[in-house]
Amino acid sequence: MDHWLLASYRQFLRPWLFLMDAEDAHNLGHKLLSAGAGVMESAAVYLGVENEVGTAAAPSSWSNLSLAGRPLHNPIGLAAGFDKNGKLLDGLASLGFGFVELGSVTALATSGNPRPRLFRLPADQALINRLGLNGDGAVSVASRLKHYQGQGFPLPVALNIAKSNKPWVVQEKAAEDVAFTFQNLRHLPFTYVVINTSCPNTHEGASFAASELTMILKAVQGLNHEAARPLPIFLKLSPDSPESFLDILMPLARSFEVRGFITGNTTVSRSGLRTDAERLATIGNGGLSGAPLLTGTQTMVKEIVLRKEKEQEVIACGGISQAEDVETMLKEGAKACQLYSALVYQGPFLVLALLQELKMRNLLRQSANSPAPFS
Ligand SMILES: Cc1cc2nc3c(=O)[nH]c(=O)nc-3n(C[C@H](O)[C@H](O)[C@H](O)COP(=O)(O)O)c2cc1C
Questions:
Q1: How far away, in angstroms, is 221 Cα from ligand 1 center?
Q2: 307: CA distance to ligand 1 center in Å?
Q3: Relative to the CA of 79, which ligand 1 atom is closest?
Q4: What are phi and psi of 239, to 5 degrees?
Q5: Ligand 1 atom showing the smallest separation from residue 26 Cα
Q6: What is the whole-number distance in angstroms between the Cα of residue 286 and the centre of ligand 1?
Q7: Residue 348: CB within 6 Å of ligand 1?
Q8: What distances in angstroms separate CA 136 from CA 181, 237, 334, one per listed residue?
């Protein structure tokens, strides 16, 4: 389905945005989102896909939709990296997302890598970024979010934590660093907390030593055990980890009560791209996201679903851009999905249009009396 709002974005707004540097366009999007929540709300009402997905047309199982036992509005979430500092929650609530993952938040504030560091690959509907975990730091994000403590977030919000991107933050120091962020933010009503073990834009790249991960999980579990309201812990995986890494990771996750997995982060691979090699060489290092990840995401979801414990949950992330992709991931056993890059190519109304199509498909299936993938 091609909704006219998506077609209008592609025809009128996108060509103009794509004349700008990708990070400048992203920052402009942030400003519009902070200012224009009302426009999105009107669009949601117009499309008949109000943010509270509780209408008669919604697939019946959405009303019971949850992650780690906490309710979601719908199964489409915003992946980490879009709202790194928790500045956009009110605006994002109006885009139709079922949940939002903010971060990655790090203990230390950092400006990240030098610009340019975000690139579009239109021929592949993909992005390459090497932002390098730029962010305001845990203390500043905690102070920004303080007012949500009593009133609650405007939609389900998860927190993504990464260790500070400094060469000396390894092993015990990495555990202290992640625990510092967790301690500063854990009093907020997050749906879950993700430990990002898989950012390719750090000093070490995506691979995380098992010994370091053990120390991090132990530190976070220790804090969680002493809390009145422990937060469910998820791990974000890399599509670049060898399958053998799962032999180490899954038992570790089990012993530290990890509640679920996000599959996955960006990839350093450039294989199978349409973008020419010269352009790729000019761009250089960074994590690739968007459409080329889709097949790998499906494979990873299958693999983790096979290996996980019954109570552990999987969130599919990487290359998702269509209602069909959401249905496929849920059928493979993912509990929910996340997207990011598709917003750049399809525009801010993407999630509302996807929700509308998912409802339509479900209604058609119901009327044809065939089993729906959500029930
Ligand atoms: C510009 C950009 C910044 C990102 N920053 C983060 C981040 O800070 N932490 C994280 O866990 N993932 C980050 N990601 C990865 C996304 O959360 C997601 O895993 C990845 O983009 C695959 O999803 P997609 O194909 O829908 O974009 C970032 C992605 C992009 C494009």
A1: 25
A2: 24
A3: 17
A4: -70, -10
A5: 1
A6: 11
A7: no
A8: 12, 24, 32
Residue 237 Cβ contacting ligand 1 at under 6 Å: no
pLDDT of residue 366: 67
Q: Which two tokens stand for residue 39?
A: 């426009």
The residue whose two tokens read 């199964």 is: 75
Q: Does residue 213's CB lie within 6 angstroms of at least one atom of ligand 1? A: no
C-alpha 254 – ligand 1 centre gap (Å):
25
- Closest ligand 1 atom, CA of 339? 26
- CA 268–ligand 1 middle distance (angstroms): 13
Write the CB contacts of 213 (distance below 8 Å, at least 6 apart in sequence).
Answer: 197, 249, 252
Index of the ligand 1 atom closest to the CA of residue 321: 26
Which DSSP string do the residues of 138-170 spell out, in sequence order? HHHHHHHHTTHHHH--SS-EEEEE---S-TT--
Mutational pocket test of ligand 1: of 289, 297, 301, 329, the residue with most ligand atoms within 8 Å of the beta carbon: 289
- What was the pLDDT predicted at 243? 82
Domains of the chain: 4-367 (3.20.20.70)
Mutation probe of ligand 1 site: the residue of 164, 265, 343 with most atoms within 8 A of C-beta: 265
Both tokens of residue 129? 């970024």
Is the backbone of residue 275 left (phi > 0), alpha (psi -120 to 50) or beta? beta
Q: What is the pLDDT along the chain (375 residues), one digit of tens a residue?
A: 678 888 888 988 899 999 998 999 988 888 888 776 556 665 655 555 554 444 434 565 666 789 999 988 899 999 999 999 999 888 888 888 999 999 999 999 999 899 999 999 999 999 999 998 899 999 999 999 999 988 899 999 999 999 998 888 889 999 999 999 999 999 999 999 999 987 666 655 555 678 889 999 999 999 999 988 899 999 999 999 888 888 999 999 999 999 999 999 999 999 999 999 999 999 999 999 999 999 999 999 999 999 999 999 999 999 999 999 999 999 999 999 999 999 999 998 899 899 989 988 877 676 665 555 554
Q: How many CA atoms lie within 13 A of 34 on its CB side?
A: 9
| CB proximity list for 334: less than 8 A, separation 6 or greater | 301, 305, 314, 315, 316
